[in-house]
């Protein structure tokens, strides 16, 4: 059995405005009707695969859990990294965790924000690589290049062995090249793109860390040993974790280890690393135009037009090499040659304190999600969706009153000592200061419209008395 | 005294998505904090100017009236054209109306959707042209070209008279030229752009119509004679009006009349005929980038970036010659060389029955306006703003119940036989079928959030019992 280890802690900004710190790329439906994280979990499930281990940030724990639950996947563990430390500490933590349950566990480590069109071809490559991993090799997966890409690292294959469908000797890791080197490698037949996907046993990778990055073992072991169970999540110890070096697995281990082999595979891989990568990943119409959502292209070429909202019409007219991504609160229009620089848009907005730099319009919570519909001088309107069986915390507010109108499903509402059911087309009023709670006792999502009135409407005007999700202040 | 005649009936689509059939360009705050219509009315007010005569469509009557009222301008008449017939019938109707009140009225006819940066320079030119108009001339205003524009018609001046600041002889009207002719005329010193602004007396223009477009006199006279007063508006007779030819004033009269003179003026005129014109009208920053609203340009050139909503961030990155206009329900991204083709975007949306082709997100009504905040399976949320002293019709709905929460000001609400005041942070419920009315008895705008629930939520589920605005079915 292979244990998938899904790396889901990133919060990149190159796919802004769709990817934001509060709801990054791997959880978005960037391609198809499932998130990239869900697609990755699904790709690594079925015969031969054990339950996955997920590594992510505390801020994303309920999103990850909910997305797995929607797939019917029950993870072996959801390990929470107290802070970003890049891939090496995360992979070591996963290896130590796996070794606890099964000393010679076979681990398939994969980013959860990549696209692989042909899942079966990928699984076949994984299965073909198992003997090498069992024999103590670190197997790294590589993609035969079809263009002179300067945005990826490369794997240089050794000479000699050419057996099809089996791992090959690896001569060197090559960092992101310049255009000339990229052109040469794209033609050589001996270079693959480094997909950042690995297969190895827990003892093999532990030995590699001991040999090449020994300083990580102490802090990461301690972070795991002192980890705290929080509902279904495993929170690594923040103090120990903070002592681990912030370093990538390539730099810490892969570029130094001698027991690596490369497993080539093809099947439509993309890291969707920027919007130009997303454009290229969409099956072509001949003119290079990729559309998504209610988007219309009139005489456009080599352009990406994405509307991320069913009620937002995006029209491109006479565009060439333009990326346009529209959301109701933020729109990006960029020349496609600048796709790698989209984080500059985020920096510019952050400098102006614009919430759009970091906050996704839908605010995902353990009980469901909400979004702001309107904000006025002394009022705010929200749409709130509560999952079946979920409950908001018992809370009160100092500065606002709330009107709730249930428009779908049934709410169980507590105000002070009284609890009652509120059904579709009924409303309740929560006075300033009243202790209240909203639950969804039903089997379907409950939707309500909340109208807040008051002199201060910030999310931080909340006093929590009970919370089934054990959230801390500020969460 | 000069009577301004403001032509405000157009509903062009070249400035989509800001300009839409339900709320066209002249009423938008395209430049500055006043609409172009308001700026035009203001430019033609003060010493020497009488109250304006406005020509517009019935659909825009309350918008026009409200925008004038906000300026403190009380129009002499708001004449409603029953259907679009281009400028000639509209100007003739205005001339006949003016002659009724003052037989030798001096009329300044102007489109209401142009931009003139220097209003005083324009008024000076008008005053300087009065003697010629009094002497029986048709004075047409022209702008010295500063580029080889192919989007405007030209006025060719006669040779000889060169007195500065006085009208000059006109040799010919020239239709929109090709690039070569435009380049020649831009250099000649004897050509002006035709601004479509005219000064003449009512008898002069009537005589010109009799001489060159006599067939218009009978239907337009009849449309005015049988016009119907409707609150403060004058509705021309639809049957008579439908018999008037659809023809421009240039074609019907100006290209044929021999008593024309041209009055040159400069002062920053633009017809804002397309987004490229809008871009050019914004004072340059050197890089040709024009920004409006929360828009950010990063290394862009010769581009227009407009966000039409204070909560919608628009970011341009590395753009050259791109027009991007963002609204919460529609976004246009176009190459600036295609600015004249924006109507194709509207056609494409209309073909898909997208409301954004024609409907502005804020729906303006005589009592104020509303906008949809959310639309669900069986519910809808609206923000409704009612002007001080205004009242919605007494009405009922067959298929929906409504919850109203007042968030600003005070509403007087009638449900069945009962009337009560509802103040900020109070709510009321309107059951299906109940007769109800909402009024704003206060001195400030009243804002309420309406949550509708029901199986059918169309605007046409309304039975009106009383309406102070005398609206007809479907209005």
TrEMBL record, chains A, B:
MannoseP isomerase/GMP-like beta-helix domain sequence ranges: 298-349
One biological process term in Gene Ontology: GDP-mannose biosynthetic process
Pfam families assigned to the protein according to its UniProt record, in alphabetical order: ManC_GMP_beta-helix, MannoseP_isomer, NTP_transferase
Reactions performed catalytically: alpha-D-mannose 1-phosphate + GTP + H(+) = GDP-alpha-D-mannose + diphosphate
Domain spans labelled Nucleotidyl transferase: 4-277
Molecular function via GO: GTP binding; mannose-1-phosphate guanylyltransferase (GTP) activity
Domain Mannose-6-phosphate isomerase type II C-terminal: 362-467
EC number: 2.7.7.13
Keyword set, alphabetical order: GTP-binding, Nucleotide-binding, Nucleotidyltransferase, Transferase
Protein origin, superkingdom: Bacteria
Nucleotidyltransferase keyword on record: yes
Family (UniProt): Belongs to the mannose-6-phosphate isomerase type 2 family.
PANTHER family: MANNOSE-1-PHOSPHATE GUANYLYLTRANSFERASE
The protein's name in its UniProt record: mannose-1-phosphate guanylyltransferase
